[in-house]
């Protein structure tokens, strides 16, 4: 079957590399076009890298915390519906000159199919949903929101179960399903709204409690490490304290 090289996309003129922070898919997982495969972080922003084709993840070329250059191949995806297996079967069953045109047509059709999938993925990523806030939405989530006529205000109100509260594919699909059922049963929605209105009175924020009295060590985020690094570098390169000492040496 045909294989597709997933590369680190360009994220701006000043961004030349990114750190791989998390793999969202494992080897053998099925991937849909425009579905997030991994998460990356740069000095400016955290983002997700989506797949451009439908297929199966067959190889991961980098590990978590590795630094990847823009344009480098991150993973190998086996495209669904490739033509290599068909070509091999034709060659084994009928090794004559008539098999050559058939194999050529199969290869050409597979290449056209890959190009169509790539073009479709590029069109999907250009979603009309604009994120005016600080919350990150993957291209797949934006595409679903656009297809289901979900406004930006509704999208911002969805509770995310992903990393750092991000909205995942399952979150937005669940919202669409609940919204459809709410329209079908408008009378049952009113008592639920009253119950939800009373919930803030009893809800209390949960603070971390240390039973043993020992300190809890929490690893710094990548952004926190960058901030700490620049603060230390600032103290090493510029003077933060200036002192003057006067001495009268007239009688010396």
Structural notes for this entry:
The structure is a single chain. The protein has 252 residues and is of the alpha+beta class. The chain folds into two domains: 3-125, Beta Barrel (OB fold (Dihydrolipoamide Acetyltransferase, E2P)), CATH 2.40.50.100; 127-182, E3-binding domain (Dihydrolipoamide Transferase, Irregular), CATH 4.10.320. 38% of the residues lie in helices and 16% in strands. It has a four-stranded antiparallel β-sheet with strand order 1-8-6-3, with no helix packed on it. A four-stranded antiparallel β-sheet has the order 5-4-2-7, with no helix packed on it. It is elongated.
Which structural class is indicated by helix and strand composition?
alpha+beta
CATH architecture descriptor name of the largest domain: Beta Barrel
Can you count the helices? 7
Which radius of gyration do the C-alpha atoms yield?
27 Å
| Helix coverage percent | 25-40%
Please provide the ordered H/E string of secondary-structure elements. Answer: EEEEEEEEHHHHHHH
User: What is the end-to-end distance?
Assistant: 92 Å
The CATH superfamily of the largest domain bears the name: RNA polymerase II/Efflux pump adaptor protein, barrel-sandwich hybrid domain
Number of strands: 8
Shape: elongated
What is the class of the largest domain in the CATH system?
Answer: Mainly Beta
Mean pLDDT, rounded to whole units?
Answer: 74
The largest beta-sheet arranges its strands as: 1-8-6-3
| Low-confidence parts | 83-100, 124-128, 193-203
Count of all domains: 2
Q: Beta-strand level of the residues, as a percent range?
A: 15-25%
- CATH topology descriptor of the largest domain: OB fold (Dihydrolipoamide Acetyltransferase, E2P)
């Amino acid at each position: 079957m045909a294989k597709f090289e997933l590369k680190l996309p360009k994220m701006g003129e000043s961004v030349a590399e990114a750190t791989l922070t998390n793999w969202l898919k494992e080897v053998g997982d099925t991937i849909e076009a425009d579905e997030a495969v991994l998460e990356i972080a740069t000095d400016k922003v955290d983002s997700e890298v989506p797949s451009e084709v439908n297929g199966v993840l067959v190889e991961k070329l980098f590990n978590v915390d590795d630094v990847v250059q823009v344009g480098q191949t991150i993973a190998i995806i086996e495209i669904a519906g490739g033509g290599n297996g068909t070509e091999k079967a034709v060659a084994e069953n009928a090794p004559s000159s008539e098999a050559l045109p058939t194999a050529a047509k199969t290869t050409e059709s597979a290449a056209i199919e890959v190009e169509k999938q790539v073009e479709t993925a590029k069109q999907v990523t250009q979603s009309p949903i604009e994120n005016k806030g600080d919350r990150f939405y993957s291209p797949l989530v934006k595409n679903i929101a656009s297809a289901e006529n979900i406004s930006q205000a509704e999208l911002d109100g969805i509770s995310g179960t992903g990393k750092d509260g991000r909205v995942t594919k399952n979150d937005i699909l669940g919202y669409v399903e609940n919204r459809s059922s709410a329209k079908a049963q408008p009378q049952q929605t009113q008592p639920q709204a009253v119950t939800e209105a009373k919930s803030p009175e009893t809800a209390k924020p949960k603070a971390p409690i240390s039973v043993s009295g020992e300190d809890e060590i929490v690893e710094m985020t990548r952004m926190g490490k960058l901030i700490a690094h620049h603060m230390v570098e600032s103290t090493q390169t510029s003077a933060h304290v200036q002192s003057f000492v006067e001495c009268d040496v007239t009688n010396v």
